[in-house]
Amino acid sequence: MKIVSACAIAAFVFCATAPVSAQEKTLKIGVLNDQSGLYADMGGLGSIAAAKLAVEDSGLLAKGWKIDVLGADHQNKPDVASNIARRWFDIDGVDVVTDVTNSAVALAIAQLAREKNKVELVSGAATSELTGKACSPNTIHWTHDTWALANGTGKAIVQTGGDTWFFLTADYAFGHALERDTEAVVLKSGGKVLGKVLTPLNTADFSSFLLQAQSSGAKIVGLANSGVDTSNSLKQAAEFGIVESGQKLAGLLVYITDVHAAGLPIAQGLILESAFYWDLNDGTRAFSERFSKAMDGRKPTMVQAGVYSSVIHYLKAVEALGNSKDGAAVVAEMKSMPTEDIAMGEGTIRIDGRKIHDMYLLEVKKPSESKGPWDYYTLRTTIPAAEAFRPLDQGGCSLAVN
């Protein structure tokens, strides 16, 4: 593979190319995410590597297709993201934007993709509004969402005695949605919310917030944040003796990179939910081994696995339609086909754009239980696809109205 001049843009660019032919079919895939901030580890350059693996595995290069993979850093700013995506769509001929880390960014790009009739494949953002009131015929929400995370992790914790909660919530669309959805589950399950506090995005100091959580007396401190914010929360909670004082931490959106950053001595015993773990089965191990070779030994997060999975399925739909540039038509074709790949297995896509698949409730191992690098989780239970995501009739998506 090589970088070609047609791909040159101000942002980072990565390309997968096949020999040019007279009958060549072309596609451009844009990976839009955080490449320098608090979400860079769970998406970032790893998502670009995952998209390139999907292009390779699609078989289209061998059939004469020319497929470019572009990448850009949106810096967690919706205006920056919108400017990049608009240029991609209007000038650079990008057909699909994927990853789209950060919920506020994903919501903004959903509107733009619909306006331009392009495709948005969301893997990194979590707000359930993407398949609720903000649903679009041009967007598919692939990997996880706040409803699934709340109903998996939150419900399991309340059922095992964690019935009083205090939330540390990232102060933007994702954090608000995750707190809202988890609070609803806690209350429905008979629990109580004793307090909550909003925390600035990418803050380095959680001390005042953790002191409020500690003084609340809540059994569970719910971390409605992600990325570096989560690993910093875990580290500082250990410094304040949160767990030693009898409280427990609930990671409502935890990536394997967060556990890696915090370390098993700090993260051990944490219960979390994920759409992917590298050591689940032969398929996840095979995908992760190839990913690791491209990423200096790192294992993929569920976001990066979701990028691979969504791009594979997108390419199947585009090929079936003969290289259609009609974004809504491609998404409709994707919904009509069952999904299957080595990273995320089998699934389906609903009319509201929600990708449906199993979710996994995991527990972080003790250091003595880990057999080596990245061996971090024990599988507690599998949440079947039919139960993992919000019922179609509860989201308020206009596409689901008969």
From TrEMBL:
The keyword Transport applies. Gene3D superfamilies: 3.40.50.2300. The keyword Transport applies. This is Amino acid/amide ABC transporter substrate-binding protein (HAAT family). Residues 1-22 form the signal peptide. GO terms for biological process: amino acid transport. InterPro entries: BCAA_transport, Leu-bd, Peripla_BP_I. Belongs to the leucine-binding protein family. Residues 26-365 form the Leucine-binding protein domain. Pfam families: Peripla_BP_6 (PF13458). Keywords: Amino-acid transport, Signal, Transport. The lineage of its organism: Bacteria, Pseudomonadati, Pseudomonadota, Alphaproteobacteria, Hyphomicrobiales. SUPFAM superfamilies: Periplasmic binding protein-like I.
